[in-house]
Amino acid sequence: MQNNDLHNESEAKLLPAESPSEKSEKFELTSDSVLNSYGNRNAYQLFVFISMALCWCWTAFPAMVITFAVGDICMNKTGCKLTPGSIIEDFHLIGADSYKAEIAITISTIGNLFGSTVLSRLSDMKGRRPVLISSLFLLGLLGVLSSFSPNIYVFAFLRLSQGVFSSGIASSNWVLAYESTSMGLRSYSSLVFGLVWVVGYVLVAPLCYYVTYWRHQILVASLPCVISAIVYYFTIPESFHFAVSNNQKETVKRWYSKMNGGRENGRKMEEVDFLIEEHLNDKNANEKDGENSGLFSALWRKKSFLVYLLVISYVWSSDSFVYSGLYLISTTLAGNKFWNFALTGFAEIPSYIVSPYLLEKMGRRAFVSVMHLLTSLAFIGTIFIDHENASFGCWLIGKFAISCAYTAIFVYSSEVFPTVYRSGCIGICMFISCFGGAASGSVRSMNVVSPNLPNIFFAGAALLAALLTLLLPETRGKQLPDSTAEVEVEKRESAGLSKRFLGNWTVAYDENFDEYLYAQEYGYFLRRLFRMVTISKSFQAVKGTNERDPPKYKYKLRVGSHTINWEFELDKEFIGEYLDGNNHNVTFSYDNSTKILRETQIASDNQYNLKPTVFEYRIVKKMMRMKFPHDQFKVYKYFKKDE
């Protein structure tokens, strides 16, 4: 039933018929708009995406094999059972020398400190591809060499060197995939990358079950990295975003050609020059404003940007500590160590299945915060539950939750940081997270002192991460920022009205509106008249607002041939002419926690001392629902967004 109302209330602002993302798709030529135009099933984007996901499988082998290769820690020489074929047995690392075994486990994190800063910055300057391929090849080669180590010192040095290049892979391969795929495909990053990681993680258990000598274990685990690096050299391109940002026209043209796949209706090559020119114009404008002058200069200028970096750094460090600590002590739990290790890997699978859906449904900030909170509660549960199976169940829930959070932080950080500094920022986060990874090396010793001691630290670290995540901006559904200025704009807009309200809305149907009009003493014919006119509302963000000013909006209400236009700021009263020809005092306010937009208005003269009228707007299943104030029954009018 089509209905239209002529109530004396102010309604929301006018926007273009398309949403902001749709508008940018149609009228703005950007790297994301090009990638999005090919959809989520473009064969070439999928090829790059899956190839990058497989990197997580190859790198899981050398990262996880050390858990079995080292063997059980022996802190005293008496009553200690050595693990056959282990590094501890081979190099006799027991008693006073047992600390060397722990160093062998964690020393790669020292290499991460160097690689996460130098290689990630190199990735921003020289490209994701060269850093990824060289790091992958050297990670495998150093692993092969370490399998021939004559003593623990040579082995530790080679593990240290591997740490440099493992962080180079982590900071470049995820970014390369993210910058080379459509926004829709990015939503599946945590699922696909996570599942591939689990495959590599779990395969380490049968590998070490059948290959019992540590030298052979490490040799077999390292070879896939060498082979895949050679394959990637001939098949993987530079990321699309980086190529556009750095004026690599030939690379961009190859991207166009591959994505077109020979289709006649694909995007035209002539567009490449315009795309790069558009980006260079934005880049030059940013440089005039001090953008792109260096990462640390940007951090100094943009304090909110610095806060985001510090928060994500801690969250990443916390995740690294908890996640690494869990897999290191998994082989010390009661039961078969190979099955325990595999089960902790399998526990991650549900996390990667639900993460993409919940990231979109809950948003990045809420999902990451809730998962850290669940991690904390799970490990608190293991402290107070005495039943072995129940305690292990809480342990697995904690592993599930931290896996969700750890993968989600890759997604989150890739969307918070701008293109020009993305790898550098992720590298700094990884640099700081190395301290968490290094601290996880002591988890085995903590476990010897008390099985509950690691759980206390896990719970505390995760709880603090849950709270700090609330300081970050929401990035769901937003294009990747290319500069810190865009990060600031997103921050400013996140404090304003939700973009879901923006657009043109037309009345579709109502609930109890006739009863409402009758209660207001409207006659039959006037009530019928309200049904015959078309009613629409529109909210639109005002362009060109100064960066430091609060966001402004335009509101348009059309009832038949009558139209009103207002411009307003949230929570700031203004005077506007209404449909009855009189001035009204109007205030729009938005509650971000409840997602409700309220419109409060009253006649400016208010000669009868009436109370203000308050209308509430809420998005309900893609409809905008307007609630009318009434004490006896609920009155709603539903608006459908114009396509």
From TrEMBL:
It comes from Bursaphelenchus xylophilus (Pinewood nematode worm). PROSITE patterns: MFS. Residues 48-477 form the Major facilitator superfamily (MFS) profile domain. It is found in: Membrane. It is a multi-pass membrane protein. One of its GO terms (cellular component) is membrane. Keywords: Membrane, Transmembrane, Transmembrane helix. This is (pine wood nematode) hypothetical protein. CDD domains: FABP (cd00742). It comes from the Eukaryota. GO terms for molecular function: transmembrane transporter activity. Residues 1-12 have a biased composition (Basic and acidic residues). The chain crosses the membrane at residues 46-71, 131-148, 188-212, 218-236, 305-326, 366-384, 390-412, 424-443, 455-472. Residues 1-24 are annotated as: Disordered. InterPro entries: Calycin (IPR012674), MFS (IPR011701), MFS_dom (IPR020846), MFS_trans_sf (IPR036259).
